[in-house]
Write a structure and sequence with these properties.
By secondary structure, this protein is α/β, with parallel strands linked by helices. Helix content is 41%, strand content 16%. Helix 3 runs parallel beside helix 4 (123-132) and helix 7 packs parallel to helix 8.
């Protein structure tokens, strides 16, 4: 499996790639992921040196109870750290946003991937990614924020697979090949904890239609069901990797690397 970005093509067949989270916000749900401009660069270099494959920058929190900000404020928070990190690291940088105008500014200033958290898979975002030959991560939300849930008449995995099928069709109509696309089922977004557990345990049933798959569950509410969010994250990430996740988005790089390495060894032993 490959995931192509502006700067490089990530080969993800051997082990899951690590996406390291850097939040440029005062209200992200996990305080240790919040960084000011100066230490964001220091952490980005440390993350790269520790084995991260992607740096993921967020300048607007999508956490429960967070306060939405304008695209202009998001750009103000993002621009200086993005430029500085671009100079300091040689791995792909993703920027998570739901504003096309933020995505465009990010791509013009060194970003390689749009981490689209809008939950809409719009032609505008797909066209932007195609224009810059960037990666496009498409997240399913069901049209809801992280603090919202709704009852479903259909199975959550069937709903997500249908959404990804339409997203891929939109992308290809806009000239973006599937190698540039990664699908994120949006664990914790518009879903109950039961839905989250179904997605983690049934990750292999999520159809990415030949595109990469991302598990972005680090320290989310579902991981606290066991009493400790870090332990829950490690176990849930291992389950997702075993189910075909090509990238895991994490706050704790050391534990994530151990998770990917151990899961790889177990998979090789099982298949050998």
């Amino acid at each position: 499996m490959i995931f192509r970005t502006r700067r490089t093509t990530l080969e993800l067949s051997d082990a899951a790639g690590i996406m390291a989270v850097i939040n440029l916000t005062p209200d992200s749900f996990y305080a240790d992921s919040r960084f000011a401009e100066d230490n964001a660069v220091v952490y980005a270099v440390k993350a790269m040196d520790s084995g991260a494959a992607i740096i993921d920058l967020g300048a607007q929190s999508t956490a429960p109870q967070s306060t939405p900000i304008t695209a202009e404020e998001e750009i103000r928070r993002l621009l200086t750290p993005l430029r500085a990190i671009r100079e300091a690291v040689d791995i792909p940088i993703s920027v998570d946003t739901y504003f096309p105008e933020v995505a465009r500014v990010a791509l013009e200033n060194g970003a390689d991937i749009i981490n689209d958290v809008s939950g809409t898979a719009s032609a505008e975002m797909a066209s932007l990614a195609a224009q810059y030959d960037a990666g496009w991560i498409v997240m399913h939300t069901g049209g809801l924020r992280s603090n919202e849930e709704r009852s479903r008449d259909t199975d959550i995995i069937c709903e997500i697979n249908a959404f990804f099928y339409e997203a891929l069709s939109t992308a290809q109509q806009c000239g973006l090949p599937k190698e540039n696309i990664c699908f994120d089922p949006g664990i914790g977004f518009g879903k109950s904890r039961e839905d989250d557990l179904r997605l983690i345990s049934g990750f292999s049933k999520i159809n990415s239609f030949g595109c990469a798959k991302l598990a972005a569950l680090s320290r989310k509410r579902v991981t606290g069901l066991c009493g400790d969010r870090l332990t829950g994250t490690v176990i849930a990430n291992a389950a997702c990797i075993a189910g075909g996740a090509n990238i895991i988005r994490v706050h704790d790089i050391e534990q994530a690397l151990a998770t990917t390495q151990m899961t790889k060894l177990l998979t090789e032993a099982k298949n050998g």
